[in-house]
């Protein structure tokens, strides 16, 4: 195991992927081990490192003026910390047996092998791009990378048309709808599901639907895109579904992402049912002593359902990187799993969830009670108190909290953290009713909305049939 | 025990005190038992019921225009629910042995005895009013009750002077400073402690101090008021300390409150070291089968230090009332204790704490590490991301979270809830580093500020001496 592929007897760590997970791992490992002990080579096929993909909608929406603000650490900064970073270099093969990776210079096409003692796979996710007629038309954009964002911005500023169609109504879809509204476009969102935000139960998604309509967004649900119409200039002209056609000067695809694990699959590494790499709690690829993986290319344990999920989210990727770096660097850290927390907004509407939706709970074999309550973000009488809706799921008999969904205005979204911590701790809704949360009229009603829901849920569980 | 003092064989519940705890108890008991089973008599010496004393600063500061908005439930509403509410009626004696209370009509002076089967004591707290020369001058105001608030408003609108002195720099003091600034006064806050907000450690209080000065508030620390100077018209003219004199057209006392337990003490009921009633977990007065107490007149168990504290806060009072009402009404509920969460603001500065300060932890016999970090409320690049400071205490060896203090701008204060839930669950700071909190650029940096503090604290604990 300690063949020391690096120079002068140092071990060599190879990192595949230069964004959050990969470069956090590299940086943390470097903090723990100097260049004399550990050589670090990182391959990144794009131009950028350590950037906030989650920030792209706000850059496109002109709330963040400069692309570079999204970059947490530049290639130069990484190199100055003793990381041999190779941009525009794509890893094309992992030779697990031989302990080496083959990389290709994207520009020259030159290929070469690099041996590793330890390997970190942080290849991220790729956006789902349905194989539809017209999908390659000009003006059809994904928003996964900074390059994607720049291409989209070029289209937005280059077109005189003002009609935008967003395909997909999940986080990226609604955030892009906001961005396009901010850029002065008329926005139609075409959504396959019953309601937008399928990460919520449909009754909560319905609230998002209504609010989006109130913002002037045209929301088309239960609609599958069948074709993209192209003009003679090769530019997109319209988005077609089975029932209708929506004129479009620009189309944004926000359908979701899948783990980018083709390399790992070809190398015979273990993948889960969602196509993500499977790791142990130390983020080590299962069955492989010297390979770690993290970020959008892995599956994570959902602590509430006890099953693996794929969640592409920068905050997890950063944690994974930190943990991998600690373990690679000779320390010790673990990632126990997630509870499925997510927060987003569309204009002034805040949307949050944690834990299980009704269908997740059923799939996990759980029986549960649900309650939905209306409350306000501040004391009812305090200026700018805004309404919010909280839905809560609690397990039958045990009363254990299973999930919370929140839709509201300013002050609604981050309240989900209360439930996220309670879920992590395995609290019952009855225990939650006694939580000592921050109260003052500018911050909360005397019963915080989450507590109002917990009280109602506790009552329902205790009255429930045996 | 079931002598049935009420009419027609119904039990009689007597409630002393018509604000949050008392009337919540009465209302909850009424929900569970109809008038045929339970007669409810409630005595309130003032004019109002169920109002938000915490809202008074915002009414005085003209953010809430109408006093009645602070009233959650009027006397008429309580009566319509079958509660025999007697306003302007002060209970002057509890005869525990005889199971009765003596009450006096405040206006007529007439006294009479009322027998009870069950008694709820919710006498609240009274503001500390130091016995200083000039304390009874016109223009010197407390802000405990709605009547106090009205008196203060009358002074503010009646005086041409624009100089206000606030005595005390705790929650009420800083909130009143904001209210007076809003009313166009020049505000001086005279504070006995080293820094304002003694509910924080002095290093965090120092941040509040600087911010208040930035708002144009004159902050005088380490200063004990010795005298209030009065003009020939009987109106306050200045506030004197040992070193200086501060001209004042109005003085607001915000020194704090003590449990109002003179009645309980005279009746031989058990009081704790802070002068509050001592109860069991069901909020029953210790050693008394048929007497409950809750709200600002009781001491509560601090779950972190394991000791009793006195905390006057509407959110606790409401919970106590709910719990007492459930128990009195034949249900079952308990109040496990508090972790000491509080949040407040002065203008746009948000101030929050939960758990133990350094001196609380030392007093509890705990050894600990502290860390303080700077972060932002949203992703650094997102518009209106504002700086915040988080201080965290973690126990040596176990790494258990002991307390968090936060000072920042918009979005800082309610983050304390994350720590409040983690404290309740007994989490270690290492466990906290893995918390799955809501992340999106408009809501949080990729590492939430509380997680940044937890990571630093975890590192310090693990590096600590054995």
Describe this structure in words.
The structure is a homodimer of 466-residue chains. With 466 residues, the first copy, chain A, is an alpha/beta fold. Chain A folds into 3 domains: 7-126 and 258-328, FAD/NAD(P)-binding domain, CATH 3.50.50.60; 140-255, FAD/NAD(P)-binding domain (3-Layer(bba) Sandwich); 348-459, Enolase-like, domain 1, CATH 3.30.390.30. Helix content of chain A is 25%, strand content 26%. Chain A is built from 12 helices and 25 strands. In chain A, the strands form 7 sheets. Chain A has a 5-stranded parallel sheet. In chain A, strands 9-16-10-11-12 form a 5-stranded parallel sheet. The longest helix of chain A has 15 residues, at 314-328. The first copy, chain A, is globular. In chain A, 57% of the residues are buried. The mean pLDDT of chain A is 96.
């Amino acid at each position: 195991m300690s063949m020391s592929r690096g120079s002068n007897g140092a071990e060599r760590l190879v990192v595949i992927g230069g964004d959050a997970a990969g470069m956090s791992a590299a940086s943390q490992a470097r903090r723990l081990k100097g260049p004399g002990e550990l050589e670090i080579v990182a391959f990144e096929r794009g131009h950028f490192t350590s950037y906030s993909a989650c920030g792209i909608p706000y850059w496109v929406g002109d709330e963040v003026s400069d692309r570079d603000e999204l970059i947490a650490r530049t290639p130069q900064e990484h190199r100055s910390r003793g990381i041999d970073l190779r941009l525009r270099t794509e890893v094309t093969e992992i030779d697990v047996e031989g302990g080496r990776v083959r990389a290709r210079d994207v520009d020259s096409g030159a290929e070469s092998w690099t041996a590793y003692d330890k390997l970190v796979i942080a290849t991220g996710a790729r956006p789902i791009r349905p194989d539809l007629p017209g999908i390659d038309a000009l003006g059809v954009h994904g928003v996964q990378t900074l390059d994607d964002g720049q291409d989209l911005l070029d289209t937005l500023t280059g077109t005189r048309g003002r009609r935008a169609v967003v395909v997909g109504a999940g986080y990226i879809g609604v955030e892009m709808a906001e961005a396009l509204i901010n850029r002065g476009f008329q926005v139609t969102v075409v959504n396959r599901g019953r309601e937008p935000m399928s990460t919520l139960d449909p009754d909560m998604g319905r609230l998002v639907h209504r609010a989006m309509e109130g913002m002037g967004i045209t929301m088309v649900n239960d609609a599958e895109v069948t074709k993209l119409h192209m003009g003679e200039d090769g530019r997109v002209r319209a988005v077609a579904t089975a029932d209708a056609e929506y004129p479009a000067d620009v189309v944004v695809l926000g359908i979701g992402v899948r783990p980018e694990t083709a390399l790992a699959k070809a190398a015979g590494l273990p993948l889960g049912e969602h196509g993500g790499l499977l790791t142990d709690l130390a983020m080590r690829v299962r069955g492989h002593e010297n390979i770690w993986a993290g970020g959008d290319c892995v599956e994570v344990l959902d602590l509430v359902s006890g099953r693996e999920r794929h969640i592409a989210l920068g905050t997890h990727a950063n944690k994974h990187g930190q943990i991998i770096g600690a373990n690679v660097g000779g320390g010790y850290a673990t990632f126990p799993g997630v509870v499925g927390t997510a927060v987003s907004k569309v204009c002034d509407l805040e949307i949050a969830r944690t834990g299980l939706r009704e269908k997740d709970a059923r799939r996990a074999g759980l029986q549960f009670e649900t309650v939905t309550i209306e409350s306000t973000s501040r004391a009812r009488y305090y200026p700018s108190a805004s309404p919010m809706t909280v839905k809560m799921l609690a397990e039958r008999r045990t009363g254990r909290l299973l999930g919370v969904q929140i839709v509201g205005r300013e002050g609604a979204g981050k309240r989900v953290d209360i439930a996220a911590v309670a879920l992590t701790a395995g609290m019952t809704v009855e225990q939650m009713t006694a939580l000592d949360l921050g109260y003052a009229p500018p911050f909360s009603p005397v019963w915080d909305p989450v507590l109002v829901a917990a009280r109602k849920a506790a009552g329902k569980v205790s009255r429930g049939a045996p």
